[in-house]
């Protein structure tokens, strides 16, 4: 007779637990709280910072709960697209600028212009090149949150050994070649300069390392609102000729496939600010940073990466709350704190010039200042869905020129043809 | 009904059959979920266009037609064929040679066997990284040794002419030990009386090898050939680590080209179509080889037995 009793007891307990859970969650939501899910793939300092900022915002706005949710990098874009297509996107998310071409065209992002105007939010404080990834067809659909760019790294020990002043890196193309020749060893042990020459998965490594020289010379990757290639011209020829000469004529750069600079086998390289920390911990030589050298007749230019932050179309209450959070987070005051916590480069001129931020950088990592100041010369890679295809096709043709298998002119013509075909197909 | 009659004829009890299927269920489910479904899905995808994280519509066979007009696809097919040929031609005879050596009673034979087998069980990525260092044009061991004998080595992995050679050498190096072990097993299956009889008849070592060892190893050779071709055709990780398909697409094998289309450019439909072409080519190669081995190889072995 005991068994049935214990069974019903278990059933009662289980039912009770279930009801508690159901009602518990109902009660939690009954407070009329607006929950804003914020999807990101950040880890480390960035993840800590986003939790802190969310908590601070929730403190200030008791009726709103910003909830950062981690999604692995590789899954974020497919998940955003899938949930948006199903009509159930998160309130907010971040994305790499490389994804923005697709997201801006998805019709899922919330236009923020009305809110920006209403609150008098100073959107022009963001660098214009970064806003290329935020706007589509005249609407502001995202805001810049982080950025980075490319600058010259040089090995001060090798400079000293070659009799060069370790505090005056090259500033022009001619100087880059001149210094490169002095630094290059004939036996192949050391090259003056390391230029990225591999076409890996996407070709983007080669392409984005070459683009700054195009821009410096006055050419462009795509022109006319990204509708056609802008490099098959005199300026583009000068830029590609300069790079090809580094390999073929001056022989100051090697067609090598690895991190020669980090191994002390190349005296100079162009790379991003993240390498400061990596090389700081892994190399035994002293290194400095400088702007990418540009020709006397050209203008300074660099390439950039970064992330954007945006709200999805959901419902009126969540949309308004989400935009309010985005504008709060990207305010100058908070961006100064954000950049100090995460080590990201400023996306706004007012942050880059603030004495609080500059003082912090000078005290912690002065080599970062070059990147901070170069950001205003950064160009945007075309934020169009066909960009990845264009980049790979371009890289494949340029590689042939690097190896001296085709002339500079041929490479530019072939690349132009390939890109025109891709752009034509995309239309 | 038919199945039932088969099972009842087979003499199994109904309970046993049920138990067997319950035990097999996990394997069948896993096979269906992780092999059959992805295959079916990729077949569907190969006829579709992919955009914004999902299929956007069917395009018929245009993904397959696009392949014919894509010079990089033909390049990858050619590179894959050269790689497969290179690895097979190098690793089979060398594997046999090693097996013949290991078949002789020598001291520490187990140690030698382990050493030769090690590359086959070494993680490909790790081996690829080490070999990349060894092929370094300036301070790599390979060019260092070449310098000792007075040869100025090429730039290997940075050279459009030599990169594929380097990758083939490493591919064959990884394959060699496995081939040697299978050959060794084959050699030990050759009945000793045959050699004794040949000796009595006055056959020399070469004649014994050519007329006894070789024919009896034919089935083993066919097996290894098929496995080597199938494996080499699908090579990916080794090339990915050593060259990423470069320089100038000289080592861009089909597996890598597929990967680049799928996960670099997100052309899932096109990549699936390439995957099916690889599958078909491997399938045809297997059919041909089984056909040939079925009439020649196994027959010869059976006769000798």
What's the total number of strands of chain A?
Answer: 14
Question: pLDDT average of chain A, as an integer?
Answer: 91
Termini separation of chain A: 78 Å
Count of separate structural domains of chain B = 2
Beta-strand share of residues of chain B: under 5%
The CATH topology of the largest domain in chain A: D-Maltodextrin-Binding Protein, domain 2
Strand percent estimate of chain A = 15-25%
The helix count of chain B comes to: 13
Distance between the termini of chain B: 41 Å
> Which structural category do the helix and sheet elements of chain A fall into?
alpha/beta
Short description:
Chain A has helices at 2-29, 44-60, 73-85, 100-104, 113-119, 128-131, 156-161, 173-183, 204-217, 234-248, 274-282, 316-329, 332-342, 349-352, 355-364, 369-374, 387-402, 408-426, and strands at 34-40, 64-70, 92-96, 135-136, 139-140, 143-149, 151-155, 191-194, 222-223, 228-229, 266-271, 287-290, 302-311, 378-379. Chain A is α/β, with parallel strands linked by helices. In chain A, α13 (332-342) packs parallel to α15 (355-364) and α17 (387-402) packs antiparallel against α18 (408-426).
Descriptive overview:
The complex is a heterodimer of chains A (427) and B (305). Chain A is an alpha/beta fold and 427 residues long. Chain A has two domains: 33-149 and 305-378, D-Maltodextrin-Binding Protein, domain 2, CATH 3.40.190.10; 151-304 and 382-426, D-Maltodextrin-Binding Protein, domain 2, CATH 3.40.190.10. In chain A, 49% of the residues lie in helices and 15% in strands. Chain A has 18 helices and 14 strands. Chain A has helices at residues 2-29, 44-60, 73-85, 100-104, 113-119, 128-131, 156-161, 173-183, 204-217, 234-248, 274-282, 316-329, 332-342, 349-352, 355-364, 369-374, 387-402, 408-426, and strands spanning 34-40, 64-70, 92-96, 135-136, 139-140, 143-149, 151-155, 191-194, 222-223, 228-229, 266-271, 287-290, 302-311, 378-379. In chain A, helix 9 crosses helix 10 (234-248), helix 9 packs across helix 17 and helix 13 (332-342) packs parallel to helix 15 (355-364). Chain A is globular and about 85 Å long. Chain B folds into two domains: 2-45, no CATH class; 64-304, Orthogonal Bundle (MetI-like fold). In chain B, 76% of the residues lie in helices and 3% in strands. In chain B, strand 1 (48-51) and strand 2 (54-58) form a beta hairpin. At the A-B interface, helix 3 and helix 17 of A face helix 12 of B.
């Amino acid at each position: 007779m005991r068994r049935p009793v214990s069974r019903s007891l278990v059933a009662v307990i289980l039912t009770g637990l279930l009801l508690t859970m159901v009602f518990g969650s109902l009660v939690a939501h009954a407070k009329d709280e607006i929950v804003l899910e914020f999807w990101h793939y950040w880890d480390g300092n960035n993840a800590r910072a986003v939790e802190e900022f969310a908590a601070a915002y929730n403190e200030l706005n008791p009726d709103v709960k910003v909830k950062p949710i981690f999604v692995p990098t590789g899954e974020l874009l497919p998940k955003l697209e899938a949930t948006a297509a199903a009509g159930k996107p998160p309130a907010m998310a971040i994305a790499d600028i490389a994804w923005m071409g697709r997201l801006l065209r998805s019709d899922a992002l919330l236009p923020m212009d009305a809110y920006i105007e209403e609150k008098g939010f100073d959107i022009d404080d963001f660098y214009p090149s970064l806003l290329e990834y935020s706007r589509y067809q005249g609407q502001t659909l995202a805001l810049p949150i982080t950025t980075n760019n490319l600058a010259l790294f040089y090995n001060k020990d090798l400079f000293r050994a070659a009799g060069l002043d370790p505090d005056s890196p090259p500033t022009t193309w001619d100087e880059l070649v001149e210094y490169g020749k002095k630094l290059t060893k004939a036996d192949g042990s050391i090259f003056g300069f390391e230029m990225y020459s591999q076409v890996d998965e996407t070709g983007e490594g080669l392409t984005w390392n070459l683009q700054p020289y195009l821009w410096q010379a006055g050419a462009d990757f795509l022109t006319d609102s990204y509708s056609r290639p802008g490099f098959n011209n005199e300026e583009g020829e000068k830029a590609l000729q300069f790079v090809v000469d580094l390999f073929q004529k001056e022989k100051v750069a090697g067609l090598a496939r690895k991190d020669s600079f980090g191994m002390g086998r190349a005296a100079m390289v162009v790379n991003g600010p993240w390498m400061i920390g990596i090389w700081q911990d892994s190399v035994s030589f002293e290194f400095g940073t400088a702007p990418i050298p540009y020709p006397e007749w050209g203008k300074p230019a660099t390439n950039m990466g970064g992330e954007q932050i945006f709200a999805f179309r959901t419902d009126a209450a969540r949309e308004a709350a989400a935009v309010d959070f985005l504008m709060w987070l990207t305010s100058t005051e908070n961006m100064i704190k954000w950049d100090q916590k995460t080590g990201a480069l400023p996306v706004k001129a007012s942050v880059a010039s603030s004495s609080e931020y500059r003082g912090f950088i000078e005290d912690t990592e002065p080599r970062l200042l070059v990147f901070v100041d170069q950001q205003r010369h950064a160009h945007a890679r075309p934020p169009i869905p066909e960009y990845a295809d264009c980049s790979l096709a371009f890289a494949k043709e340029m590689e042939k020129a690097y190896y001296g298998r085709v002339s500079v002119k041929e490479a530019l013509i072939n690349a132009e043809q390939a890109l025109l075909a891709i752009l034509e197909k995309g239309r | 009904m038919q199945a039932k009659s088969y099972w009842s004829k087979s003499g199994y009890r109904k309970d046993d059959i049920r138990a067997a299927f319950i035990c097999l269920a996990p394997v069948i489910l896993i096979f269906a979920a992780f092999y059959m479904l992805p295959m079916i899905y990729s077949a569907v995808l190969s006829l579709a266009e992919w955009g914004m994280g999902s299929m956007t519509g069917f395009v018929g066979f245009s993904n397959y037609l696009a392949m014919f007009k894509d010079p990089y696809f033909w390049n990858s097919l050619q590179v894959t064929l050269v790689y497969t040929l290179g690895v097979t031609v190098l690793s089979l005879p060398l594997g046999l040679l090693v097996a013949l050596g290991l078949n002789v009673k020598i001291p520490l034979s187990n140690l030698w066997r382990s050493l030769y087998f090690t590359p086959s069980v070494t993680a490909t990525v790790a081996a690829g990284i080490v070999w990349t260092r060894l092929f370094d044009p300036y301070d790599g061991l390979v060019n260092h040794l070449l310098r000792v004998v007075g040869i100025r080595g090429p730039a290997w992995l940075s050279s459009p002419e030599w990169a594929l050679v380097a990758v083939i050498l490493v591919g064959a190096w990884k394959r060699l030990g496995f081939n040697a072990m299978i050959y060794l097993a084959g050699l030990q299956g050759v009945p000793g009386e045959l050699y004794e009889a040949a000796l009595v008849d006055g056959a020399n070592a070469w004649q014994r090898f050519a007329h006894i060892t070789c024919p009896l190893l034919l089935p083993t050779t066919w097996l290894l050939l098929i496995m080597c071709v199938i494996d080499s055709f699908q090579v990916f990780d080794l090339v990915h680590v050593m060259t990423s398909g470069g320089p100038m697409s000289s080592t861009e094998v089909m597996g890598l080209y597929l990967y680049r289309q799928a996960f670099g450019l997100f052309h899932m439909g096109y990549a699936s179509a390439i995957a099916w072409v690889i599958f078909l080519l491997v399938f045809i190669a297997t059919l041909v080889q089984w056909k040939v081995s079925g009439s020649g190889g196994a027959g010869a072995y059976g006769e000798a037995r």
